[in-house]
Write a structure and sequence with these properties.
16 helices; globular; 4-stranded antiparallel β-sheet; 7-stranded antiparallel β-sheet
Length: 495
């Protein structure tokens, strides 16, 4: 294929893909800016704890082991916690990918609540606002995410002030809250950006395939446009009149200049967005496996962990049971992120020590040298974003293995909260860094990152808007044949 034919095919591909995708790209830029400031609806752990009443310790009459046995499930639970279900203390068990509840006063199982009981269970969240509707549902726009699978189905409690609360019918806990503002902004933000429309998103593979196809086609379109834009630019031998671009019409002129100035950003942003779905296994992130978590814990939450009750203080809102390095522990949680770790001997402390974390973590990479340290400020792999806070200090362990493994372990829970190795560099730099601009100099001053993302998004949005206008004009204008002998002199016809 000659260079001229290649350029012609690239022109056609860029034109027709742009006519189909420019509006989608424009929406991606707008929604990306919205997502920078507005998180998707969620009930944070701090909000959940703040709404819980003080735990009625005098009414807790059975151990978590007795309550677990009352469920009649095989194996052992992954998570066990104790808090109030209305006016009764209750154990919450996560097992077999589902949350279940057993009352802690008589070991009776929690039954799906009726309307009146649902209101009592959610009373601490609802306040004095009037209830307008209570709707049973399996999923909707805000619970379509897989993270809610363990709590389905729900009762959605709608309030007169625009707030909605989602109560799990299986566990009796409020697991999500939304308000009018969050829902409105998320329709413009996360829903559009991720194509998280309920009828599509509930079919996971179809949604993923569609998003991969659209983003890859858009990437090809942007690459073609970037190549053609540089090909048309004349710096040494300007066009007649001293112009660097051949286009006279305003929309084409600005489309060309915006493509040259912002095209590289658009390409890298589309590439990183495409890689976020790990096509062909590319840029797949590294996450702690259940086996690694259990290695660190030293075993399951079995009978020796669940057959005891710690002394519960009056300010305690929740208790959860842990195992770390084989040792049974209980954690008393209070509002404002305060907590106390209790050993079976009764000894209390605020968090795990670095030495014991390092000793336990040696099981993750046996017979491998490592270095352990407290991390009190962000590094290149462990850092906070506006909607993704990280807690400090965290124990960082660097292993001298062939993978160059790094583990970050929360001293308050003894769990791996993040990890990295040499294989996830693509995920870190080609997806996270290029798509979110979470480089250390920008994270140090949040306004710099915000300003840069907004500026580049405006530039990319303007580029896409000009593409939308040019595409619309080509679709609606009547067809006028062009003399082939003159076509080469009319570069505007290539856009």
């Amino acid at each position: 294929m000659t260079r001229a034919k290649l350029a012609r095919w690239l022109h056609l591909g860029h034109r027709w893909l742009g006519m189909g995708l420019a509006l989608m790209l424009l929406l991606w830029f707008v929604s990306g800016v919205v997502m920078l400031f507005v998180a998707r609806p969620q009930l944070t752990d701090s909000e959940r704890l703040a709404a819980l009443p003080a735990l009625a310790a005098e009414r807790v009459r059975v151990t978590p082991l007795t309550a677990w046995q009352a469920l009649g499930l095989t194996g052992w639970p992954e998570v066990v916690r104790l808090n109030m279900a209305g006016d009764r203390p209750a154990y919450r068990f996560l097992a077999q990918k589902h949350w279940s509840t057993v009352y802690a006063d008589d070991a009776s199982r929690f039954a799906a609540p009726d309307t009146a009981q649902a209101l009592r269970l959610a009373a601490a969240h609802l306040g004095n606002a009037g209830v307008t509707a209570i709707t049973p549902l399996a999923l909707d726009q805000w619970t379509v995410y897989r993270q809610f699978d363990a709590w389905r189905p729900f009762l959605r409690i709608e309030l007169a002030d625009g707030r909605d609360y989602y109560l799990s019918s299986g566990s009796g806990e409020v697991v999500l809250d939304t308000n009018r503002s969050e829902r409105a902004w998320n329709w413009i933000g996360s829903v559009v950006h991720w194509l998280y429309f309920t009828p599509l998103r509930e079919h996971g593979e179809l949604w993923r395939s569609l998003l991969l196809s659209i983003s890859f086609a858009a990437l090809l379109m942007a690459l073609a446009g970037l190549y053609l834009g540089w090909q048309r630019l004349r710096l040494r031998t300007p066009y007649p009149g001293g112009r660097r671009t051949p286009y006279r019409a305003a929309w084409k002129y600005w489309h060309h200049l915006l493509g040259l100035s912002g095209g590289i950003f658009v390409v890298t942003w589309l590439l990183s967005g495409w890689l976020s779905l790990a096509p062909l296994g590319l840029a797949r992130g590294i996450y702690a496996t259940p086996a690694e978590q259990q290695q660190l814990a030293g075993g399951e939450l079995s009978a020796d962990v669940l057959d005891w009750l710690p002394e519960i203080t009056p300010t305690t809102r929740e208790v959860d049971w842990l195992r770390f390095a084989g040792q049974p522990l209980a954690r008393l949680r209070q509002p404002d992120a305060e907590q106390v770790i209790v050993e079976r001997s009764g000894q209390r402390r605020r968090q795990l020590g670095l030495d014991e974390i390092a000793l336990a973590a040696a099981a993750l990479r046996p017979a491998t040298a490592y270095q352990a340290q407290w991390l009190n400020e962000p590094d290149s792999r462990y850092f906070s974003l506006r909607h993704q806070p990280r807690s400090f200090p965290v124990a960082r362990l660097d292993f001298a293995d062939s993978e160059r493994s790094v583990f970050y372990i929360d001293p308050q829970t003894g769990r791996i909260v993040s990890q990295a190795n040499r294989h996830d560099s693509t995920h870190r730099w080609l997806y996270q860094a290029l798509h979110r601009f979470d480089f250390a100099p920008l994270l140090a001053r949040a306004w710099r990152r915000d300003a840069l993302i907004i500026f580049l998004s405006l530039m990319g949005g303007a580029l896409c808007l000009s593409g939308c206008v040019l595409g619309w004009r080509r679709v609606v204008r009547p067809h006028r044949p062009v003399d082939a002998s003159k076509q080469a002199k009319i570069p505007d016809q290539h856009i």
